[in-house]
Amino acid sequence: MDIAALLGNDSLKSLEKRGRLIQALTDRTVAVQDIIALDLKDRETGIVLEAMEAVSGTDPGLAGPEWLAWAEPFISSPSNSLKREASRIAGNLAACFPDKLEGAVKRLLENTGNDKTVVRWGSAYALGRIVQIPRYAGGELFTTVQELARSEENQGVKKQYLAGLKKAEKLRK
Predict the structure, then answer these.
(1) What domain of life does the native source organism fall in (predicted)?
(2) Is the pTM of this model over 0.85?
């Protein structure tokens, strides 16, 4: 599949491009290495991240560590939608690649103070899953996520933290 041609096809709506990319990633007819090689605009990057998020959310076993490595820098993107999708990918893949999360955790923690709910929710989603990993459940990230949950006013964001903490608490006993 020619990813650049797909993403540049103006006759297709974003949703259709995303759907085709999801199918190609699922069928493994396109590799993330092919995507990494492209020079994408934010809109195109958004479509790719949405597709990667959908695939990593339903079948994380299809993803390799390069998915996380490619998505991680977008956690710090100026674009809130790119931050959200990249954060969700990190959350979806956390259990698969627990030794590759240090950079993502730092970026996610930076986004917890963002004024946009979608950005904080994405970070809470990922951190809630990362804190369930034994090495993080027993470390200082657990305490940090507890503090974030206490100070978060939005109930949807808070719920993400609390769900992760509840599961992580069982690992601490």
Answers:
(1) Bacteria
(2) yes
